[in-house]
Amino acid sequence: MIRVGFVLLSHTDPDQLLNFTDVLTELYDAPPIVCHHDFSQAPLEKRLFPSNVRFVERHLPTFWGGFSIIPAALAALRLLMSGPNPPDWFYLLSGSDYPTMASERAISVLASTNYDAFIDHREISYRNDAKDGSDGPPTGFARPSYKTLAYKRYCAVAVPRPSLAMPFAFPPVGRSYLRNPAWRSIFTAPFGPAFRCFAGEHWFTANARAADVLLAQTDRSLQLARHLSSRECPEECYYHSILANAPLKLHNNNLRYISWPTPDAWHPKTLDVTDLPAIENREAHFARKIAYRSELMNELNRKLGVGLHVRS
User: Fold this and answer.
1) Which residues of 166-185 are buried (b: 16+ CB within 10 A; e: fewer)?
2) Is the pLDDT of residue 222 over 70?
């Protein structure tokens, strides 16, 4: 039987995080869990958490769409994999995720696969007319406009310019984007024929082999980190580009159920009990986002046989 571990990223709702780790502990028989929690945003009592839960001691201040999320996740992954008995597989999860599949069944999927990682990813290039390959309706990262947006974020040359909101700021806070690849002959970047750009949903599942690739500090990974440090939503590109350019086998299904309310929505919807049939049909291992103490959380506890229910 393979061993599964968890990397959690959180910055708010300590009670929900505590309940989540309790549920994972019960369902997966006290698995190794490492959490990077931003204590500057929401203090919590570490002593209340199960003994199989560890925290990154020197946390990083994190914010949505900022680069700090990446070193935070890697610090937690490094702590997870550095123990005497590291897991064979790990899930990268947020505090608002929740299990939707029985642990025995989820572990069976991971134990029987030939893939190294389950990560939503697509190649990003100047000509974005290739088939995406994603399942489901064209929303979220599968929407037609995403590849164009991702090319601007990660591949186009960003040129500082004055901002209408802050016209006298120095250095300028605005950006213009030079999209044509010819500009890259002048302004170099990590991406090219030998290292292609990939992007997609942040949250993923991967094995120990993929973890080694992510944790290896190479000239390529350091160059990519420098490039993405000033880019928007770098967590939607960093892991994907590192893993997809490595000799690994990737599946485009990240084993999550996520619902986007509109094709161009910036955030997924908070799920409710009406989403339960779609969650079950998708056969996802986890769903996001789920509100703490919601009817959907209670129903998932009942279906999964979680004895502790939700902490009061």
Assistant:
1) eeeeeeeeebeeeeebeebe
2) yes
Mean pLDDT of 92-114: 97
Residue 98, φ and ψ in degrees, nearest 5 = -155, 145
Domain residue limits, the chain: 4-124+196-304, 140-185
Domain at 4-124+196-304, CATH homologous superfamily:
Spore Coat Polysaccharide Biosynthesis Protein SpsA; Chain A (3.90.550.10)
Residue reference for tokens 């601007």? 152
Q: What number of other Cβ atoms are within 10 A of residue 157's Cβ?
A: 18
CA pair distance 157, 227, nearest whole angstrom: 11
Asked if 99 and 23 count as a contact pair (C-beta separation under 8 A), the reply is yes
- For residues 178 and 284, the model is more confident at 284
Give the span between the Cα atoms of 89 and 60, in whole angstroms: 25
- Using CA atoms, how far residue 54 sits from 2, 26, 58, 147, 294, in Å, is 21, 16, 12, 37, 27
Amino acid making up residue 248: L
- Least confident interval from 12-26, 136-150, 241-255: 136-150
What's the confidence (pLDDT) of residue 311? 53
Instruction: Count CB atoms within 10 A of the CB of residue 304.
Output: 17
